[in-house]
């Protein structure tokens, strides 16, 4: 998918060598995990002979062991094949998506994740390996993408069949893992709350992020929509090619002024993942009949651990609105978070079906920033939190072979070489981002020095997990 | 339109005798006001010969002389033909609509009306009698409906041509005066903010009011929409025939409980004209992805004069919402008021065109509760404020002939007899409402005792107006 990121990731991989070697969970890479993607079926677990499957079945899982920094998410080995209840399917996970809520969750700022230890992860793609009773619309071997409240950052996941969606022809596992959260979020915000129509204007914050790119693509499916997108300057060329009409560098310019220069009356729709004072600005930037859709509090995230000052500031500036102001302004304020919508699979499925139709028609396509091994989840989270990604951050469950750890970033990227042709235009634009990332890599070394000690903890925890 | 209301109005007309006789503005009923509706052209003003038109041109106008009770709106005579600026048209007004905002305005609770003395009135219908320069799409003789921030409760109104809409074939002046505010409000709330779609559920408060009836009809244009409507029991049969699926008597039952019994998950859309604590209830009654659209503060209106306790209570209970609650609930809160949308004629025209198409297709049709002479505006406002109407309250500019004041309610109603056939079903249902109205009439007599004195003030003010 994103072979163009290789140099940056290579650097990551080099960093990784020191930290991940001790983490080579001895029981974590059994033959199962190497079973061929499409043929992965229930009997893959039977490769070890004569021992009951329940005992020999092991799989790697990322586990949030406590709230805090990037190192709190650890790779562990779990043992025993999970039991399936009626209506459930067991999915052999191929790729997982990272979301902003996962970053919030790690800091203890997301209440939809149960207390640690717990496996995070709201979306993944994979192959159905077993189906429970009463499951009629999924069968072993189906390639699916999965949406769940949590628990998908592992090699094997058990979920209700209704939380799975068939992957259409030609969609890679990475794309499939990149699609659910970002596209459903963008779709429901723009077309349910936003009621986006031709000739309207939309302000998209973090336009180079996963939701930002999905929202931009979805805006382009409606005639003559003008998209204003904020992103750091190095990402402007990419987001412009993706459909942003007016990119705005929020780091060097006042985005409110920039928007007013071009559209004095303001915006029809504003997607606000920031919270705090940016929500106030958004509200004031709305046209009459305008819709502000707030879907996060990214401003709360400052640094890798919970920053009480940032949290307090966000609370202090939290937007609160009186109905009289709404009436006099003819405005709408909406809140959206897919994580709180898990009881509404009917709505979600409806949105997903439309999105998949758009995908098949070539109108939307997830943009992968980079793909990381499970061992690299900390670095992946860091890149995302520091806003150095353009598009989706993906984790692959494919094990990191020894030689890759030494030389290459990831196998994933080779597989995706054939897709490069579509992406050539994007390649150059990433250069700037890569430079930023290199600077970033230097920063990364600090926390990593602690890693080796932590790896011992990890092993102990893994043992506990095995009971 | 509403010949079926005759008995009730007759009673009103009887009441009226005592109070309106002294109000027979001597200069208020010149031949002009009796000019035939369709033929009313600029030269109608030329019936008085040899004296310059500017001096002889007089017209009756309702004027809010100060904030307070029903008697604060007085009928005055204005002199001098208003000048037309470029882009404006002069409309000979035939009928005017009453709106809740007019009631608020009389009490000093609506900031879109300039300070008294001022002519209220946000909508009317009539005939174009003169066009200003640069007006290309309206001509003398055009039958139009008009939407304006204020100033339409008079026999002659000057408005921007862009604020007029051609009346379609077959629509009466009363219907045309009943349509703009209620239908545009209902339309924009349901289809812009509400994004109403098939199979959804909508709670409509005051379902027998002007907006309520318009909203119900518009809901029925979408497949399988379930409408919950609150109204007093006597109105249930009428609103049920109009399209309300589940009528709820809010006077004897807890509407929240009633809604939950039928739809435990709550509502997709709630239209809230009440404000205060009802807005809180509405918010809690929303489904995930639900939209609360608040468009008034009817709860503030208690009695005919400003009730400070009611206002304070409304403010105290005023709904205020934090974004975090919106996000966790996946909810939308919108505010709407057409009075604050007067800069957005493009949006309004778009909505109006769709509504007129629906009218032509027979899908929507304003329901007139009753038509009143300008002299009767106080009674009309009272009926509306006391929630005794089913549908729209209309004022007609046709003068009240002596014999009518003694015997008949109004000429208007005779003209509409031919339309009765469409309405036969509605006739019976109004009986209950009429009974209520009779009770009401007794109450009316109290304030009317003051009237005769006030009429003298009125004459004096009329003289001042003439300068």
TrEMBL record, chains A, B:
Residue ranges the record marks as coiled coil: none
Molecular function in Gene Ontology: oxidoreductase activity; zinc ion binding
Ranges of compositional bias, category Low complexity: 35-48
Domain of life of the organism encoding this protein: Eukaryota
Biased composition range(s): Basic and acidic residues: 16-32, 402-467
Domain annotation Enoyl reductase (ER): ranges: 68-395
GO cellular component entries: mitochondrial outer membrane
Keywords: Oxidoreductase
Region (Disordered): 1-52, 392-467
GO biological process, one term: negative regulation of mitochondrial fusion
Family: Belongs to the zinc-containing alcohol dehydrogenase family. Quinone oxidoreductase subfamily.
The protein's name: Vesicle amine transport 1
Protein species of origin: Sparus aurata (Gilthead sea bream)
Lineage: Eukaryota, Metazoa, Chordata, Craniata, Vertebrata
